[in-house]
Amino acid sequence: MTEEQMLAGSIKKNATAQEALYARYSPKMLGVCYRFSKSREDAEDMLQEGFIKVFSQLHQYRNEGALEGWIRRIIVHTCINIIKKNKKFNDTVDISNAAFLYQREDYIPSILQAKQIVECIRMLPLGYRTVLNLYAIEGYVHKEIASMLEIEESTSRSQYTRAKAMLEDILIKKKIIDKPGAKISFALP
Amino acid sequence: MDNKFYNGNFENFLKESTEDFKMYPSHKVWTSLYNNLHPAKKWPSVAMLLVLISSIMFIGVSNRKEISKKELLKSSAGYPYIASEPIEENTTDVNLPGKKVEVFLPEVQPVVDQQFISEGNPDNKLFSFYSKPENTEIRRLLRTLKFSQATNENFNSGSIKNVDSGLYNQKINEFVASLNNNDNDKFSFEFYATPSIGYRIHSNNESSETFSKMPAGYLENTVVSNLSNSLNIEAGGNILYSINDNFRLKAGLQLNYTNYYINTFEAGNSSLAEAVMNDMIKSQPVLNTRNSDMSNIPQSGNQVTLNNNTYQLSVPIGADFKIAGNSSIEWYAGASVQPTYVAGGNAYLISSESNSFVNEGSALRRFNLNGGIETFVSYKLRQGLKLNAGPQFRYQFLSTYSNKIMLNEKLYNMGLKLGITTNF
Question: Do the Cβ atoms of A40 and B23 come within 8 Å?
Fold first, then answer.
C-alpha cells in the first residue's frame, strides 16, 4: 500500500489503511516516545495517545513536508503534554540524583550504538532529558521549548547546557565517544 | 565497536545516532488504538465467534424433538372423545355396565385416525408416533392402561374422569420418555477434558524474505534446547449429530492451556537482548531490543525457570466414526479441525544472538489453526449416558508466533481424553 493510499484510506477511517500507516510509522515513533519516557510501558501509552491524535487530525495534513515529520511533531507534543501533567521542569538535578547516575551506568551493556545512546539519554533527569531531546534531536529552539514546557527561556538554555555536559560525560565513560579534554560540568559528592 | 569522535557538533551527533532508532510496540497498543478509533467494531473476531457459537446452540436446541409432558397433554386434551364402542364392549369385564367412560388417552383406531385427520391435525406428534407400525406394543400398552383404569371407581373430577391419576401419570411419564428416546437419539452432548503432555518443534522462519537478508551470525543458535515438558489441558463440550449408526458430526467450544518450561540462568547485570524481527512492510530485518536479566549462558547466579504458555479458545469441528461395538460398549475414531483464538500468554523468546531471553507477549499469533485425532472407547453407563476414554493427538498448524518473529514454533500434545456423552 502506498503512502497516498494509506493516507486517503485513513482519512476515510478505513481500518486496513490505518493499520498499515500505524505499522509503518509506529516503530520509529515508539523510539521517539521511549527517549522521553521513564519506561517502555509509559512510551507505549504515549504512542497510543499520539496516534489517536494523528488519526483524528489526519485530514488537516496538507502534504507540506514529509508525513513522517508531521506525525513526529504530533507524537512529540503528546509526549510533552503527558510529561507536563505530572512534572515541573524548573527543577534541576540534585547531587544525589547525579551520583545515582554513575551507579546505574555500569548496567548499560555494549550493544548497538543507537540503543546505547538512547539508554544514556534516558538516564538523565526528567527536565534535562526533555530539554535535550527537544533541542538536540527534535530541533526545537529554546524559545519554542520554553513555550511548550511553560518555563523561562533561560531555564531551557541552562538545563540544556547541564544536560549536554552530563550526557557527554556518560558517553565518554561508556567509551561510546572519545572527546579529549572533556570536562564534567557538575559536582559529584 | 569503534568509538566515535564528534567534532564539537553534539546536536548533529545525537540526531544522526538516534535517527533510525526503532522499537516495536506490543500488540495491545494497536488493539487499544483500534478500539478507540472504531468503538462500534470492538473485537470483531470475538463477536463473530459468539455468533458462531450461538448459531450452533440454536441449531442444536431447535432440532430437539422432545415432546414434553405438557405438550403431550395439550395435544391429547384437544381431542378428548367418548370411547363408546370399545369401552362398552369391555365394561362387562370391568364391572361398569352401561357406563360411559371419558377416556383421556386417545386409542388409535382407524375411525379415530380419520377423526384426527379430518379435524386438520395430521401433524399431531402423538398421532404420528402412535400410528407407526413399529409402535404396536405401545398402543397395546395404552389400551391396557385405559381398560385397567376403568376398574377404579374412585375417580377424580375434572377433565380426567374415571382415570387413576397416579397410575396415569406414571404411564404417561414412561410414554414421554419412550417418545423422547426414540426421536432425539440423533443429537447428544459431550463434555470432556484432556490432560496431555505438550511438545514443540522449533525452526527458523527461513521462508521469509527477511531471512535471506540477515546479518551474518544471527539466528544460528536460536533453537532452544534447554526445555522441559509440562502438563497441558483441554476442556470443552461438543454437540454431536448422528448421520447414521456409525457416523456422527460434532461441533463445540474448547478451552486450551498450553505450556512448557525454559531453564535459564539469572544474570548478574541486566543486559539488552536483541530480537531480529521482520519488518512486514519493507521485508527487512529489524533489530528490536529489550532489557533482560535471564541468560541462556550458564551463570554463577540462580537457575530461573521460565514458563511459556498460552490461553486459547477453540471451535472444534469434526466427525466420529464407529469402528466396532455392541449395545454396551463402542469403539470410535475421530478427527477435528480447531480454529483457535489465543487470548493471552507468555512468550519468552531467545535473543537473536542466543545470549538471553525476553518476554514479548505481542509476539503471539492471535489466530491459529489446530487439528486433533483421537480414538476412544465409549461405555454405556445407563440409558442415555456414556463414558468415553482414549488417547488424543493435537497439532498446531501455524507457528505460535506472528510472522514478524523469525522463530517458528509448532506445538503438539499427546494426552488422554476423558468424557461423558449424554442425550438431550
Answer: yes
Which of B383-416 are b and which e, b meaning 16 or more Cβ less than 10 Å from the residue's Cβ?
ebebebebebebbbebbbbbbbbbbbbebbbebe
A29, closest residue in chain B (CA to CA)? B22
Task: State percent of chain B over pLDDT 90.
Answer: 24
Lowest mean pLDDT among A46-50, A125-129, A182-186: A182-186
Q: For residue A15, give how far its alpha carbon lies from the nearest alpha carbon of chain B (Å).
A: 8
Q: Which of B153, B183, B213 is the last residue of a domain?
A: B183
Counting Cβ atoms within 10 Å, is residue B90 exposed (0-12), middle (13-18) or buried (19+)? middle
Question: Can you point out the beta strands (E) in A88-137?
Answer: none
Q: Looking at the structure, do residues B335 and B220 belong to the same domain, yes or no? A: yes
pLDDT(A83) > 70 = yes
In this complex, which of A43, A47, A111 lies closest to B274 when CB atoms are compared? A111
Look at the pTM and tell me if it is higher than 0.90.
Answer: no
* A–B interface: beta-carbon pairs under 8 A: 115
Ordered by where they begin, the domains of chain A are: 3-86 (1.10.1740.10), 95-173 (1.10.10.10)
Residue B28 forms part of a structural domain? no
The grid cell for B92 is 362387562
Q: Which domain holds residue B384?
A: 185-423
Provide, as residue numbers in chain A, all residues whose Cβ is less than 8 Å from the Cβ of B32: 48
Domain match, B114 and B237 both: no
ipTM for the assembly = 0.80
Q: What is the domain count for chain B?
A: 2
